[in-house]
Amino acid sequence: MNSRSLKSIFRRHYIPGLMLGVITLSLLDGLVSPEVVSGFDTRLEYELACLFSGSMAALITVMFHLYRNHKVLHRKTVLFRHLSSRREIFLAGVSSGISGAACLLLFASPYWSISLCVVTLIIVLYELKEFTKKLFTLLAPGTYPTWEDVGQIADAYIIMLAAYTITNINLSAFHRLFENAPPAFSFDGVPSLADFIYFSVVVMTTLGFGDIHPVTSDAKLLVSFECLVGYVMFALIVGVITRGIVSTRKQQTSVSVSEAQKAAGKGK
Known about the structure:
By secondary structure, the chain is an all-alpha fold. The chain contains seven helices and no strands.
């Protein structure tokens, strides 16, 4: 069992932790307002919301790792083989808790918001580099994907979708923190978390329904980058999966031919 470093664990759980924090805050704040997060009135409310979102992100992360370990130990999944140690589970919970609490900075001030956006984009670019490296390795001659590889690819794709959602929320919140600033996106009314998730899926899959679109120049640049990345990722994923299906069929065909040849030899 290979032990992962603190750096890799934090990088791996930063975006999911942010997403879990935003979901927690939206559910908490949604009791009062339909917005993603409308903001809190006092410092105590901010501190309590920060503590709650971080705790929930840490708890969900730890429960996920324990559940995955149970699946791996009892061989109930083919998508994962790595068994997380207690140290890794603890560090994953701490990392998700920190990023889950930090999601409140999206709505605190323009400076904190843009700082968090920069950190998120840096981690997205690094994860994208690792994801592309993994896919090109699987596309090399004589290399075929395993079910564990498929699980890692699906995991990376979901994380990238979460990163799109967080970045779009970040940019929208950044514009709203300035008075008289135009909205970043053309949402009809007050946007909810579901609106941002829907828009991120549309952008990542390059569907382009047009009901929601970027308005400002920075939003257009961001969405252009997201479309290009989503298109390339989808094309590479299809190539890897297709390669695995073709290789499986070839192996099945070769086994059938060899069995037929053995049967013919015995008949003689």
